[in-house]
Design goal:
heterodimer, B: 440 residues, mainly alpha, two-stranded antiparallel ribbon, 2 strands
């Protein structure tokens, strides 16, 4: 039903694998963030927010819930990918705004921002989304190239 | 005209169904009947399934719906708090700069009134314009996207299980903005008992007027997790509203809940014009309040802090404000609140913003910076208890008036005020006792 309207891929095998990789990555990073914030492991810069860790796990849960329907070639799985992207983008956008506002405070030399360091604001929700988008973009390019190559091969075989 | 396959309501309840809430069975039956009617009358065309339906599969998911709601709520409060900090600092610096001029006025009485009373009071409260505007912006965006109605739908399942009316959650969500709006929105709730329950618990939701208190206290006592603390206070408001509503529904306001059927509009991309317009319309009310009631309140508070039985210019410990605070202080002694905080809480009956405005003036007249004074006068645990007390006690006089209008009863209005005071005190005391046992 969605496929025709939303121009979704016919084969959900690779999207399901990609979704699982994203989900596991978000889950792993979320757990590390929780452990780091609770100081159960060596604290890592940018991993200090406990709630942030739980949020990443929720994003992971959304992605991972979509794996099963996608592996069964059920188009509803794409809904989980879409909402996973929306949540990841929300957290990313929020962190960008935090960096911009903190940067403004630092630029204006306000007392509370003098010691501000951008690395502290470089949280997993920020770079995970960058990785996610890079991965998505790469797969899109690869997918397009594959379709072109397959198209050329088909044309060649027909000739 | 007759139909051979007319929809019939199933009334037989099997043994297996007995453990399920009858309201849920009723809702299922209703949807089944609706489905049967639709089967006869509705012909799906091409292109009916759109992105909006797709997103609803996840946003309204049985298990993921609530966690997603929490992520979005957290993002809203994180946005409100973190982004506004730098703008708050700008306004603080502006008023500090103004204060350097007003404090040099030759007439010491006028200099104190302008510097400690008006700039220290209204000026201080105006520094909270950015978070309040950002909060309204976030609420507007959520409303305009269509997610807020989904949030009510997500919560409906839980509220039904607890014997509450799902529609009650919409006024409760409006309570994030203003308790008066929440109380008035309870008109949409069906059933006298359900409506009254909603009216009584709506003030427990954190309104924008409480936000400055959370931001101040969380910023002073929990600077590295302030945004999360503010988010948790809002969540506590929701939890307390649900708990209290359950208690009311099981004791004084018994009535069967009815299931909610609501039409969910399609998701929309909010327009900048629409969202900022909504933000402005709501936020400007705060500025108007600051320019009128809070200005008058700050002058009264300055007068009470600067005058005492011995006349003008007495030490703040001998002022009328001190006498007022000391009179009620013994009641709040177990919570660890000083007389200054007690005075602030008394003025908070008028409007919640007046709590920190009063604190700012009392400490300014006493010649101490507010943050330093708070750190010196209370423990972090008492600070949490203060936030909890502010969350749960009567929001403002305007809300009390709205409750009177909506219930048409002084009895229920009085009950609302008294139960909130008692609840606030008990929960704040529990914070002190349990927190003391766990963390001290």
């Amino acid at each position: 039903m969605y496929r025709e309207e939303l121009n979704l891929p016919e084969d959900s095998k690779w999207p399901s694998v990609f979704t699982m990789v994203i989900g596991i990555a978000y889950l792993g990073i979320g757990v590390i963030q929780i452990f780091s914030s609770l100081q159960l492991i060596t604290p890592i810069i940018g991993f200090s927010d406990l709630i942030g860790g739980f949020l990443l796990i929720i994003v992971a849960a959304v992605f991972l819930t979509g794996v099963k329907p996608l592996s069964e070639n059920n188009q509803e799985g794409y809904a989980f990918i879409a909402v996973g992207y929306i949540l990841a983008a929300l957290l990313f956008g929020l962190q960008i705004l935090v960096i911009l506002s903190n940067g403004l405070g630092w630029f204006l030399r306000f007392e509370d921002w003098i010691t501000w360091d951008i690395l502290g604001d470089f949280t997993p929700s920020l770079w995970m989304f960058i990785i996610l988008m890079t991965g998505t973009g790469s797969l899109w390019v690869i997918g397009n190239m594959r379709e072109k190559i397959m198209g050329v091969m088909k044309e060649g075989s027909q000739i | 005209m007759t139909h051979s396959n007319e929809p019939k309501m199933e009334t037989e309840v099997t043994e297996a169904d007995e453990s399920i809430d009858p309201q849920i069975i009723l809702a299922d039956e209703r949807y089944e009947v609706i489905g049967q009617i639709l089967c006869e009358t509705y012909k799906p065309g091409q292109g009916k399934w759109i992105l909006s339906d797709m997103l609803d599969r996840v946003f309204l998911h049985r298990y993921l719906g609530l966690p997603i709601f929490l992520v979005i709520m957290w993002a809203m409060f994180h946005f409100t708090f973190e982004i506004s900090l730098v703008f708050m600092e700008m306004i603080t610096q502006f008023f500090a700069w103004l204060g350097t001029y007003t404090s040099q006025i030759p007439n010491p009485l006028l200099a104190s009134l302008l510097t400690n009373g008006i700039l220290g009071g209204v000026g201080f409260i105006l520094t909270f314009i950015p978070p309040i505007f950002f909060l309204y912006l976030a609420i507007s965006i959520l409303e305009d996207t269509g997610y807020l109605s989904r949030a009510a739908f997500v919560m409906d399942r839980f509220m039904m299980k607890m014997g509450l009316h799902g529609r009650s959650f919409i006024p409760l969500l409006l309570g994030f903005g203003c308790s008066v709006a929440a109380v008035m929105a309870s008109r949409t709730v069906d059933g006298e008992s359900n409506r009254l329950t909603t009216i009584l618990v709506s003030p427990l939701m954190s309104c924008a007027g409480r936000l400055p208190i959370y931001i101040l206290i969380a910023g002073v006592f929990f600077p590295s997790n302030a945004g999360t603390v503010v988010f948790l206070m809002y969540m506590l408001g929701i939890v307390m509203a649900i708990i209290v509503a359950i208690i009311f529904k099981k004791t004084i306001l018994r009535e069967e809940s009815s299931s909610m059927i609501m039409e969910l509009s399609q998701y929309q991309i909010p327009t900048a014009h629409g969202s900022f317009r909504h933000m402005w319309d709501r936020g400007i009310m705060f500025v108007k309040t600051a320019g009128t009631y809070l200005l008058a309140g700050s002058i009264i508070m300055w007068t009470l802090s600067s005058f005492g039985p011995a006349g003008l210019g007495v030490p703040v410990d001998e002022s009328f404000a001190s006498i007022l605070g000391h009179f009620f202080e013994p009641i709040f002694m177990p919570l660890g609140f000083s007389w200054q905080i007690v005075t602030g809480l008394i003025f908070g009956f008028l409007a919640k913003e007046a709590v920190i405005q009063s604190l700012a003036i009392v400490y300014a007249v006493g010649g101490i910076a507010l943050e330093t004074a708070l750190l010196g006068s209370m423990t972090p645990l008492a600070a949490v208890a203060l936030m909890v007390f502010v969350l749960l006690y009567v929001p403002c006089l305007a809300t009390v008036g709205a409750i009177r209008r909506e219930t048409g009863s002084w009895k229920w209005t009085g009950f609302s005020v008294v139960y909130q005071l008692v609840l606030a005190y008990i929960v704040a005391l529990l914070v002190i006792i349990i927190g003391g046992a766990l963390f001290v």
